[in-house]
Design a protein that fits this description.
This protein has 523 residues and is of the alpha/beta class. It contains 19 helices and 17 strands.
């Protein structure tokens, strides 16, 4: 999200997507035109019909605007509509949309990150049944959707919502490049090379301070999980939930990926090359060591640079110490990051709006016009052409936007919610409240861009509808076993597999296989 109080900090759009919701409040817009009052066509030129169109969405800020809202004015003029944006906190969204649809006064379309909300509305018959005919009129969205994303939006053979294209992940393995240089080491590309680096980062004084005070790697399990080091399962292959392998349903427990990973972590613990607090400390608790130059490898996005600099008074001393690298390979199928989400939210259109072909056409025109990379995207996301804002071109396709001269959104921060439903890190915009970009922000963009280019695994699990109680049971069982295995309190992994299958793993595998077959992912 935006931040108008922390001078000199930088954010990429990819981080904005997952930012925490701020203060709750009523939706933006001036509230004078209800989308559900009787339509009164306004004749313009050759009898153009002017529709009231309301979008209800999960917003970032969710505070009201004034009557001079330049974003609404721009939309109204550009698309010849009377637009109303109702932005709500995530906690309020479901109750509000269910109430609005139940009262026969639905918004014309909605945007939500929660597919279950759309499923509930679809089961009540209040949404457009199948949006597939609209996709050919939405090339800016459709061309960015994977087939799995489209399958994700299907229910009973119909596409119940339009997926917002997924964001390419910007989390990866970050390594202290200065420590590698100090020890004459190369970037590790295999499990063996990674282990060698971790050992030497721990024992060979990589920071050259003459003290034995560093660890090769760490994690932040918070006393209940393995923390982010669990992503290093990707060294050995696919590990995200249930997936397809060799034309059958599979899971990391049954393919051997999980055991290989546990053996890797067990070695770290046995050799004391991992921070001794790795399992008990939380994410924030670990930061003093990470940014106090005691840890050489971390799982992080490009913001690691800005955080490191911030802790150290933004002197520029740590801009170039971190390097983003691909996941090292521990097997032939390994060397992958976790999968990205299949979609970054979904749009759904009300059945009432869909009954009017002209209004449906206008909604489609609006959605396409404001989707990246069209002009409407820049107008709503960054205020270019709508609020007098500017996005400056930088090197390597990056762009820069400063909040410094953004007077309207400083006074009415709810205007940022015009960008919530369309935002994407694909625009490569560096957002800042400083007047010019600096080295820290540029390095963050560079690292995030590198991370997005690294291999990740396909996302099968999020297409499944599995028994949540069974999923919870086997997940809890796995969490309890794996820390005991790592600490040497349990040693029989084969027995664990047998217990896992009996506890629900086999039922889940069977159900996953059945569903994958129905999706034609298993032949």
């Amino acid at each position: 999200m935006f931040n108008g109080s922390n001078k000199g900090k930088y954010w990429t759009t990819g981080l904005l997507i997952g930012s925490l919701l701020l203060s709750s409040g009523c939706g933006s817009g001036n509230g004078k035109n209800d989308a559900n009052q009787s339509e009164k066509p306004v004749i313009k030129g050759e009898q153009a019909e002017r529709f009231n169109i309301e979008l209800m969405e999960v917003g970032w800020v969710n505070t009201p605007l004034d009557d001079n809202d330049p974003y609404k004015k721009w939309i109204d003029e550009k698309f010849n509509i009377d637009f109303k944006l109702t932005a709500l906190p995530a906690a309020d969204m479901e109750a509000r949309i269910l109430t609005r649809f139940a009262s026969q006064e639905p918004p014309d379309f909605i945007f939500t990150y929660d597919k279950n909300q759309i499923l509930k509305l679809q089961s009540q018959g209040v949404l457009m049944e199948d949006v597939r005919p609209l996709l050919e009129k939405l090339p800016s969205i459709n061309n960015e959707l994977s087939e799995n994303a489209k399958t994700y939006a299907m229910q009973d053979g119909k596409m119940i919502g339009i997926p917002k294209p997924a964001e390419p992940g910007n989390w990866t393995v970050m390594i202290r490049k200065d420590w590698l240089d100090n020890l004459g080491l190369s970037i590790p590309t295999t499990e063996e090379e990674l282990m060698d680096v971790i050992r030497k980062f721990t024992t060979d004084d990589p920071d050259q301070n003459g003290e034995n005070d560093t660890w090769g790697i760490s994690s932040a399990g918070g006393g209940s999980s393995l923390g982010e080091i669990a992503n290093f399962q990707g060294m050995f292959g696919q590990f995200h939930g249930f997936h397809v392998k060799d034309n059958a349903a599979a899971h990391a427990v049954t393919t051997g990926v999980h055991k290989q990973f546990l053996d890797f972590v067990k070695t770290l613990v046995d050799e004391k090359t991992i921070d001794s607090d790795w399992y008990t400390q939380g994410w924030e608790q670990r930061k003093p060591k990470l940014f106090g130059n005691k840890i050489g490898i971390a799982w992080y996005p490009g913001s690691i640079v800005a955080e490191h600099e911030s802790v150290n008074e933004n002197k520029g001393e740590y801009v170039d110490v971190w390097e983003a690298i691909p996941m090292p390979k521990g097997s032939g199928n390994g060397g992958v990051r976790p999968p990205n989400n299949l979609a970054n939210g979904m749009y759904a259109i009300s059945a009432n709006a869909a009954k009017n072909p002209a209004k449906l056409e206008k909604i489609t025109e609006l959605l396409e016009g404001v989707s990246y990379p069209n002009d409407g995207y820049w107008a709503l996301r960054w205020g270019v052409g709508s609020d007098g804002q500017e996005v400056v071109d930088l090197d390597n396709g990056f762009k820069f936007y400063t909040e410094f001269n953004d007077k309207y959104r400083k006074e009415y921060p709810g205007a940022w919610d015009y960008g919530t439903w369309i935002s994407t890190s694909r625009d490569k915009v560096l957002q800042s409240n400083s007047e010019e970009p600096n080295e820290t922000g540029m390095k963050q963009l560079e690292l995030d861009e590198m991370a997005r280019s690294f291999a990740d695994s396909p996302n099968f699990n999020d297409q499944l509808k599995l028994d949540p109680q069974l999923v919870s049971d086997v997940s809890k069982m796995t969490e309890e076993f794996q820390i005991k295995y790592i600490l040497g309190e349990k040693t029989d992994y084969d027995q664990f597999i047998e217990d896992w299958l009996k506890a629900g793993g086999q039922k889940l595998l069977d159900e996953a296989e059945s569903q994958f077959k129905s999706m034609n992912l298993i032949q």
